[in-house]
């Protein structure tokens, strides 16, 4: 099947300068399991555009590195 | 990804399996453990932030507090809100046990609002009684429950498997004996043998497509994709009132509650485009939703939540509640749009359709002990047919299910698990991984849910519903070809099968009930009148055990145990006596 890679604006952003190596709190808490630790940067990032903009990821981050934006289509 | 062999699996055992660690599920686990059962919670997210309360809740919608309201008032109110089609014995449980539940939650550390006399500050939103009780620190509710599950005494009895998603309940001789699922991160295949199974998997909130077009921008937590409805159906259980959809008045685009329940007591209310009130009662019912839709569609539309007339301090107080509990990104949304409640009223619209007995009445048929029609299988929370049951009802039914299931599991035999059903579930889970180049889940799901909007949104007609059914049959082929490359994608693919099952149930149930009832929830343009002579009954659906086809049965409305002032039963069935104290399930202590 023909396929295309497509770029999406994802709602959750992570400040990599603040994000702590080895911490997985936001990844553990996301109800949709949309966050992951990037294998190269070792920082959290949103790996799929699946978000209820509910907020546990930001609320549980101990260093305030996670921001939940409203998904682009709703903004 | 590599597909595990069907025999290569993690096997777990417990007395009581709880599917879903949300509101009802955590309470079911706590009570079952208290009654001596070993409990396993299978949760596809993380119990700390899962279910409808993922981030919290701003209040209780249905607490019957002694001295403030009576169980009889509450049962009568809900009977009328559901056009009389109700098993009052189920509602009576929520009415009589809700206050005990409030106290139990308080003992765990949940805070409820009290007035200056230290009495519960209940508010009136329903037609006659006052049952709405704010929770000022509602964002802590799941944290408190999680802490309780990890407490000494409970911890040893309750296992939790986060990120493990069940897809089918296993049955043997018509009895629930376990479940099959998989780890949504590692892809590992998982089987569970259990003495009893409690389904507490939430609403089908990912049925209709929100107007924004964003798959996960739903009113309900989008992880609640109708998993429990599909699992109960395939296990042979009856479901009821599926044609009575959930539709809610929400903030346009944000798709969260507006929320008149919170703003009402402060003087906020819903108005049309001309600034006039158009509903006399803000309680969410099918009738209210019909009025909301009519207003939006008219030249007086759209509609707004009006707060701009309130003093600044009051608005700040409302913001303090609405922007911190339940959906805390609401402030972010308004900031992005440049909307300030002080200057502009908030545009509202109506939500996509869903199935949810917490708000309306579509769910798995249960009796007043949370038992489904399958032995050893229970349902609680948004997916159990106890109309308008909301959060307190979910806790009460979790509690009831936990107690009854623990007792059932004690005496239940533990047969070998049925390998044919395990193999079928394995096929359901891993098929998309064998076809990684097939259409991806977001496209398949978008198409499926667009058809849901095209053909199932009220007002409904036979012609539209038939076209919908055709589309949902066609989608079987699309789902068959769907491709996945990771365990995470397999999770979303399995959810698409649940959504399709729910869409088919919603279409067939809506076609079968040839009348209009529950306001907008089941408004049939081709059968515009309520037909009490033929349809004052429950409409239950199930999977026929011999043909495998969906079948429908009418169930009579049980005699009322509480009189309903101003409502005459069209079938003339006389009321029965109210249950004696202690006749229904015992209290949690």
TrEMBL record, chain A:
Give the matching Gene3D superfamilies. Answer: 3.30.70.20
Q: Name one Pfam family in it.
A: Fer4_7
> Any idea where the 4Fe-4S ferredoxin-type domain is?
10-40, 42-71
Q: Which domain of life is it from?
A: Bacteria
Could you list this entry's UniProt keywords, alphabetically sorted. Answer: Iron, Iron-sulfur, Metal-binding
InterPro entries tied to this protein: 4Fe4S_Fe-S-bd (IPR017896), 4Fe4S_Fe_S_CS (IPR017900)
Q: Tell me what this protein is called.
A: Ferredoxin family protein
């Amino acid at each position: 099947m023909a396929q295309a890679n497509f770029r999406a604006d994802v709602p959750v952003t992570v400040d990599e300068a603040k994000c702590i190596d080895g911490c997985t709190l936001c990844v553990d808490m996301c109800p949709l399991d949309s966050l992951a630790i990037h294998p190269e940067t070792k920082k959290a990032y949103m790996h799929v555009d699946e978000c209820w903009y509910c907020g546990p990821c930001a609320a549980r981050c101990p260093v305030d590195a996670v921001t939940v934006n409203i998904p682009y289509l709703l903004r | 990804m590599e597909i595990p062999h069907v025999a290569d699996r993690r096997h777990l055992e417990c007395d009581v399996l709880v599917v879903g660690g949300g509101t009802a599920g955590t309470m079911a686990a706590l009570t079952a453990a208290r009654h001596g059962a070993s409990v396993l919670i299978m949760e596809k997210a993380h119990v700390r932030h899962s279910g409808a309360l993922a981030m919290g809740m701003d209040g209780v919608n249905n607490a019957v507090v002694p001295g403030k309201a009576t169980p009889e008032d509450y049962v009568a109110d809900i009977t009328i809100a559901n056009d009389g089609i109700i098993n009052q014995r189920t509602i009576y449980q929520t009415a009589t046990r809700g206050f005990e539940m409030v106290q139990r939650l308080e003992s765990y550390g949940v805070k409820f609002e009290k007035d200056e006399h230290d009495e519960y500050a209940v508010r009136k939103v329903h037609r006659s009684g006052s049952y709405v009780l704010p929770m000022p620190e509602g964002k802590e509710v799941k944290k408190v429950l999680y802490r309780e599950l990890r407490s000494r005494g409970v911890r040893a009895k309750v296992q939790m498997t986060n990120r493990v998603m069940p897809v089918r309940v296993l049955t043997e001789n018509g009895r629930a004996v376990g479940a099959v699922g998989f780890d949504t991160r590692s892809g590992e295949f998982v089987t569970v043998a259990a003495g009893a199974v409690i389904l507490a998997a939430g609403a089908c909130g990912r049925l209709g497509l929100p107007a924004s077009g964003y798959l996960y921008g739903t009113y309900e937590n989008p992880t609640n994709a109708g998993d429990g409805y599909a699992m109960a159906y395939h296990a042979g259980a009856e479901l009821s009132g599926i044609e009575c959809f959930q539709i809610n008045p929400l903030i346009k685009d944000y798709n969260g509650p507006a929320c008149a329940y919170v703003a009402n007591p402060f003087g906020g209310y819903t108005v049309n485009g001309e600034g006039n009130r158009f509903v006399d009662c803000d309680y969410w019912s099918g009738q209210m939703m019909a009025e909301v839709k009519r207003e939006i569609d008219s030249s007086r539309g759209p509609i707004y939540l009006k707060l701009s007339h309130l003093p600044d301090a009051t608005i700040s107080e409302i913001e303090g509640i609405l922007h911190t509990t339940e959906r805390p990104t609401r402030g972010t949304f308004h900031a992005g749009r440049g909307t300030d409640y002080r200057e502009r009223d908030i545009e509202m619209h109506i939500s996509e359709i869903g199935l949810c007995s917490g708000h309306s009445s579509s769910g798995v048929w249960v009796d007043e002990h949370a038992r489904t029609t399958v032995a050893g299988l229970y349902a609680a929370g948004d997916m159990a047919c106890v109309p308008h049951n909301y959060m307190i009802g979910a806790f009460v039914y979790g509690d009831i299910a936990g107690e009854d299931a623990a007792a059932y599991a004690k005496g239940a035999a533990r047969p070998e698990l049925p390998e044919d059903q395990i193999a079928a579930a394995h096929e359901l889970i891993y098929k998309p991984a064998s076809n990684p180049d097939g259409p991806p889940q977001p496209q398949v799901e978008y198409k499926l849910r667009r058809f849901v909007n095209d053909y199932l949104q009220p007002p409904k007609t036979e012609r539209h519903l038939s076209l919908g059914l055709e589309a949902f049959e066609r989608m079987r082929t699309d789902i068959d070809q769907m491709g996945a490359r990771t365990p995470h994608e397999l999770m979303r693919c399995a959810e698409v099968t649940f959504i399709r099952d729910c869409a088919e149930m919603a279409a067939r149930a809506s076609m079968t009930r040839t009348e209009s009832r529950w306001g907008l929830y089941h408004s049939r343009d081709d059968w515009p009148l309520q037909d009490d002579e033929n349809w004052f009954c429950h409409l239950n659906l199930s999977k026929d055990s011999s043909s495998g086809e969906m079948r429908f049965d009418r169930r009579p409305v049980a005699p009322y145990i509480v009189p309903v002032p101003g409502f005459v039963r069209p079938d003339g069935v006389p009321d029965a006596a109210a249950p004696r104290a202690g006749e229904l399930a015992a209290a949690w202590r």
